[in-house]
Structure formats: C-alpha cells, structure tokens
Amino acid sequence: MTEKEITEEVVEEGVHNYSAADAYVWPADPKVRQKLEWFQDQKLALMMHWGPYSQLGIVESWALSDADAEWSRKGIDWEASGKEFKEQYFGLNSPEEWECFVTFTQNQIKELAARYGKLDIMWFDAGWVCPQSGQDIRLGEVIDEIRSWQPGMLCADRTVGGPYENYITPEQCVPDQPLGVPWESCITLGTSFSFAYEDTYKKPREVILLLIDIVAKGGNLAINVGPQPDGRLPAGAVESLKGMGRWLKLYGDAIYGTRVWRKVRRFRRRFFFHGKGK
Questions:
Q1: Measured between alpha carbons, how far is 275 from 258 in angstroms, rounded to an integer?
Q2: d(Cα 50, Cα 229) in Å, to the nearest integer?
Q3: Residue 213: phi, psi to the nearest 5?
Q4: What separation in angstroms does the CA of 240 have from each of 149, 209, 212?
Q5: Cβ pair 182, 40 in contact under 8 A
Q6: pLDDT band at 23 (very low <50, low <70, confident <90, very high)
Q7: Pairing of strands 44-48, 220-225
C-alpha cells in the first residue's frame, strides 16, 4: 500500500491511517520540544492490548461496529446486534448528554495523569473523536491543564493533526522515506493487536530488520504483544523479544539516540543512513 493510499483512508479492518507530515504542527512549548528529543532517542517501545476480549481471543472493540462486523466478529457467535449500546451512545447527541460525557471523559484522563506518577506520553486511539466529526471532547484544554503538573508530557491525538498530535503514528506499515517530523510505527509482533489463540509471531530477524528500516528513516518502533488471558506473554512472543534483546545488547549503540543522516540513490534503489551527533 502506498503512502497516498494510506492517507486517503481513515480505518480499514481496524488499521488506522496516519497524518501527513507536511501538516505537522511543531509544539510551541519548549518542554514538549525537549521531550520530543528524548522520545526520538528511544527508538523502541513495547505496546500491549489486554482486556476482557483476551479471554475469547478476539479483536478489541471493533465488533461493536456493524460496519466492521464482517472482519471483526469472526470466531464467535454474536447473538446480539449491539443495538442497545449504539442507542445509548448516539443518544449522547443531545448537548446536555454530550457535555456530561465530555466532563466524565476529561475527569478520567486527568485521573490517569494525577494518580499514577510521571507520564511521558498520552496516546489517544480514535481519530474520529475530534471537532471535525462533531465529537469534540476538548482534548486540548485537558492536556494543557495536565501539563501544569506533568510538564512536557507528549500527546498523540492520532490522525487528528494539529498541536496535540506531537508525533505521527503509522500503523502496521513503515513510511517509504523519512518523514522529517517525529513518528513511531505501531506494528504487531503477531497477527493482531489483541491475543489470538494459535497466533504466529515474527521471528527475531524479521523484527530486527523492521527496526533497522524504521530507525534509518528517523522513526521509532512500538512493537505490540497481546498478553494471554492470564496476563502472561505468549511463548512465541517471548522468544522473539529475547532474540531481539540479544541483538540489541550487541548493536544497540547503532540504534538508540540516532537521527537520519542522509539518503543515497544507487542502482535504482534508495539507501537511508543514520548516525549520532550533528
């Protein structure tokens, strides 16, 4: 899939698009800019999706959407259509109900930021919850408030763009070339973000090559693992992560803290180089 095709789509079978780099808004807050430098040094993150759906080995919340029923409801018999749930949700369209929902949501966000120590990033995964779609939770005002006690905290308001999408988040893909702005690809180690029974996992070599490709283009990799119903990581995932760790123990200095250096075209192919320092 080309970058143009990705950016023209919103969500396809649970996979989000990503914002255009040329529309990126650099933060005005110097502490956020400083945290972005730290973020770009990290290069590797571990992401987890774990919830009641893990007991059944199904996808996260997509099955609640009739539009996503064909691909998301496989492997389980759905007796209910979700009609009552949707009636309750769309009932929030009245101004009074929506304002109650906004207050509740903002309080939940502030609780996470106030009661669990230092936070580096808040990551919001639903690009349609935004003013442009008529679902404005006024995220900016709550993030600004949180930054008064969590200075420099990054905000990833995925695919929405603007001053609160501090880095771009390609999903299940790697851009064709450096984006010139902070970015992080979120990619599954298995075949889905949530746990799936009898899932298959990428081998260490495959994940390492993926990481190198991303780092050479100036990005980070958030590798996702879905824990089992009991919270343990699947054996296949552990094997891949340990293999990756062994490689990084030897060659991590060529990964961490690096930036894009230059692009070279040779023999009709493009090569990207990265390094440390100016």
A1: 5
A2: 8
A3: -60, -45
A4: 38, 13, 16
A5: yes
A6: very high
A7: parallel
Q: Distance between CA atoms of 168 and 155, rounded to whole angstroms? A: 10
Please list the residues that pair with 154 across neighbouring strands.
121
Tell me which amino acid residue 91 is. G
Q: Find the Cα–Cα–Cα–Cα dihedral 200, 205, 206, 212, rounded to 10°.
A: 150
Mean pLDDT computed over 23-41: 97
Rounded CA gap, 214 and 220, in Å? 6
Which residues lie below 8 Å from residue 173, measured CB to CB, with a gap of 6+?
1, 6, 185, 187
Q: Under a CB-based contact definition with an 8 Å cutoff, are residues 194 and 158 in contact?
A: no
Task: Could you list the beta-strand ranges (E) of 84-183.
Answer: 121-124, 154-157
What SS3 state is found at 154? Answer: strand
Q: Give the burial class of 18: count Cβ atoms within 10 A of its Cβ; 0-12 exposed, 13-18 middle, 19 or more buried.
A: buried
- Say how many Å lie between the first and final Cα of the chain, rounded: 34
Residue 39 near residue 220, CB atoms below 8 Å: yes
Percent of the chain surpassing pLDDT 90: 65
* Distance (Å) of CA 22 to CA 161, 181, 226, 273: 10, 9, 33, 22
Residue 3: both structure tokens together: 């970058």
What 3-state DSSP class applies to 179?
coil
Tokens for 11, please give them. Answer: 């969500």
Global confidence as pTM: 0.87
Looking at residue 61, its pLDDT comes to 77
Position 68: which residue type? D
* H or E stretch covering 71: helix 69-72
Tell me what the mean pLDDT of segment 13-24 comes to: 85
Point out the least confidently predicted range of 82-91, 215-224, 261-270. 261-270
